């Protein structure tokens, strides 16, 4: 995910989009066999036999018909899953998406040139904004090299969704609106929206064909800050985006109904390049403890971020930064790639602007003032109340493990990601006395408009290894053998998932065809082991490797008794964010991280004495 940028590119960013292979449909037999293998760690022998019979009936009966219909669908679409996934995973969901769907995270700049410092918020924001605008220009002019895995070209379509994109609430289903265009496609909006103390401002980030310089951006940001200082806070209409989706849709309709000018303001926010949030919070994070800024990114002030926007850039009063993004239009790797680009640019320039200090004459930011009445104020108050109640229930920890990282793991000829996933399984097993159903993101971008597949790390082999690790009588040799088997199984499943041979999305497709055709729901999806093993979005551990860069993110757990777990792997450190709901008596994110630390040490010791 490095950003190769070419002055005179031989390959344009989106040039291979039309030559990517279609998303394949796996074989029914293969998917059902993998599913049975995946449920085994969660079943007694008796339960397993019942589920095996259910799966056999499905494979020989209704499943065959549904599979044929899925193949038929795949013949007329280059990605049979794309529309379904967007609707089922995101747009049809009715719970509040800002906390349950969005991902947020800390910017890594505090590790080098921008440690927490007061009095530099606006100056740093102007420089960070300038680099972000350069990245937008790279995408506009298609000078960002297409991503590849080895020689295999990866789909770049999601990068069109980073800028000028917003989710619009609907009463039964949301929609995504995207205004981004490359230069060859035509004009693209170039304004940004700045939010401060519950108020909205907008200005064009381009003047006479040139992107505003940091001194010019600073002038605009200073004006916004001066307008808000010593003044009462605005109406905080943005808090409505944190509401339950149908409630927000109705509040939005009402807002437009009381004054047509409100519709214009909404369109300005929706079409903006991105939102900049000037936040008075001072999270004071460190390179070892990112918890305060990660918590603030996920659960901060709802009146100064637009929860439906594809990118909210959060600027804190102590000179640190974060982000909060809607997950519907793209996956985290898009933002990670962008933030890593900014991080590298800041490192190269020591976080300074070395260009012209001249500020051209240009219009000052315009304030966008919604017309509100008592009902809107009441809707905002309700939204804030439910948001604060939920966010106060979310436990967030984010620490750096600095004893070792990728270098030491690879030296022992082990895959770093698999290493951490198995350490997490052992940590959970040690803490809870059982295995946790686990989702890990597998990327399917080698296919047209590919996004993700589920990889299930909680295998029978992982279970056997965890069990062996906690047996006092087990020899080091037995532990090593079990570990190696778990590693090999994990690597095999991940490779299959990335190559379009996972089974979760396939089962989802079969489920959705049955639903769309009004058929009785097949037993496979109502069988207790289906949800117990994580099916239907019931994974206890919701995990993702954010990459091998400096950028990290965080998400809320998928289920009430579960954990959200994101991590990044550096050469000499592993940084992980872990979330849990405080109201669940079972979970404790702090304890899980400490158990993870113990597991990492034990595993490296095991690998060192063995040199597997």
Structure overview:
It is an enzyme of class 2 (transferase). The active site is at 327 (proton acceptor). This is Peroxisomal carnitine O-octanoyltransferase. By secondary structure, this protein is of the alpha+beta class. Helices cover 43% and strands 15% of the residues. It has 20 helices and 19 strands. It has a seven-stranded mixed sheet, sandwiched between helices. Strands 14-19-18-17-15-16 form a six-stranded mixed sheet, sandwiched between helices. Helix 10 (291-299) links the parallel strand 10 and strand 11. Helix 15 (460-469) packs antiparallel against helix 16. The longest helix has 23 residues, at 476-498. The chain is globular, with a radius of gyration of 25 Å. The two termini are 29 Å apart. The model has no long low-confidence stretch (mean pLDDT 96).
What amount of the residues lies in strands? 5-15%
Estimate the mean pLDDT confidence. Answer: 96
Apparent shape: globular
Give the proportion of residues in helices: 40-55%
Question: What's the main sheet like?
Answer: 7 strands, mixed
């Amino acid at each position: 995910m490095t950003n190769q940028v070419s002055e005179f590119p031989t390959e344009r960013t989106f040039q291979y989009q039309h030559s990517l292979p279609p998303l394949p449909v796996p074989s029914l037999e293969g998917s059902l066999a993998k599913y049975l293998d995946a449920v085994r760690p969660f079943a007694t022998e008796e339960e397993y036999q019942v589920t095996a019979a259910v799966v056999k009936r499905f494979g020989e009966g209704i499943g065959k018909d549904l599979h044929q219909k899925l193949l038929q669908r795949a013949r007329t679409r280059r990605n049979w899953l794309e529309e379904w996934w967007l609707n089922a995973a995101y747009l049809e969901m009715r719970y509040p998406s800002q906390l349950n769907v969005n991902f947020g995270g800390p910017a890594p700049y505090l590790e080098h040139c921008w440690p927490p410092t007061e009095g530099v918020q606006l100056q740093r924001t102007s420089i960070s904004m300038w680099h972000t605008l350069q990245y937008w220009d790279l995408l506009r002019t298609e000078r960002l090299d297409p991503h590849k895995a080895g020689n295999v070209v990866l789909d770049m379509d999601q990068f069109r969704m980073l800028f000028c994109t917003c989710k619009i609430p609907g009463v039964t289903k949301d929609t995504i609106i995207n205004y981004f265009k490359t230069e060859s496609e035509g004009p693209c909006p170039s304004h940004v929206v700045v939010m401060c103390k519950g108020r909205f401002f907008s200005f064009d980030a381009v003047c006479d064909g040139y992107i505003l310089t940091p001194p010019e951006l600073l002038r605009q940001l200073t004006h916004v800050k001066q307008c808000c200082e010593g003044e009462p806070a605005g109406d905080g209409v943005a808090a409505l985006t944190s509401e339950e989706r149908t409630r927000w849709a109705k509040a939005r309709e009402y807002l437009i109904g009381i004054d047509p000018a409100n519709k214009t303001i909404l369109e300005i926010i929706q079409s903006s390049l991105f939102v900049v949030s000037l936040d008075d919070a001072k999270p004071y994070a460190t390179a070892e403890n990112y918890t305060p800024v990660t918590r603030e990114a996920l659960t901060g002030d709802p009146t100064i971020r637009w929860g439906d926007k594809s990118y909210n850039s959060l600027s804190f009063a102590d000179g640190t930064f974060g982000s909060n993004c809607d997950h519907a239009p793209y996956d985290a790797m898009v933002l990670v790639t962008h933030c890593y680009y900014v991080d590298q640019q800041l490192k190269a320039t020591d976080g300074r602007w070395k260009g012209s200090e001249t500020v051209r004459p240009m219009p000052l930011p315009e304030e966008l003032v919604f017309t509100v009445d008592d009902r809107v104020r009441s809707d905002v108050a309700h939204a804030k109340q439910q948001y604060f109640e939920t966010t106060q229930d979310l436990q967030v920890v984010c620490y750096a493990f600095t004893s070792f990282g990728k270098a030491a793991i690879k030296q022992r000829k082990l895959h770093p990601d698999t290493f951490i996933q198995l350490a997490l399984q052992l940590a959970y097993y040690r803490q809870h006395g059982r295995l946790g159903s686990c989702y890990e993101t597998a990327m399917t971008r080698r296919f047209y408009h590919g996004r993700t597949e589920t990889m299930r790390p909680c295998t029978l082999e992982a279970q056997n290894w965890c069990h062996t690790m906690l047996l006092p009588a087990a020899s080091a040799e037995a532990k090593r053998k079990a570990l190696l088997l778990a590693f090999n199984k994990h690597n095999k499943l991940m490779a299959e998932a990335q190559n379009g041979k996972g089974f979760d999305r396939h089962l989802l497709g079969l489920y959705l065809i049955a639903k769309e055709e009004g058929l009785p729901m097949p037993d496979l999806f109502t069988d207790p082991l289906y949800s117990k093993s994580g099916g239907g979005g019931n994974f206890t551990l919701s995990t993702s490797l954010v990459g091998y860069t400096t950028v990290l993110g965080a998400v809320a757990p998928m289920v009430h008794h579960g954990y959200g777990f994101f991590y990044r792997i550096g050469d000499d450190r592993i940084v992980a964010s872990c979330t849990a709901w405080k109201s669940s008596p079972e979970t404790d994110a702090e304890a899980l991280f400490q158990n993870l630390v113990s597991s990492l040490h034990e595993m490296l010791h095991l690998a060192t004495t063995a040199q597997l």
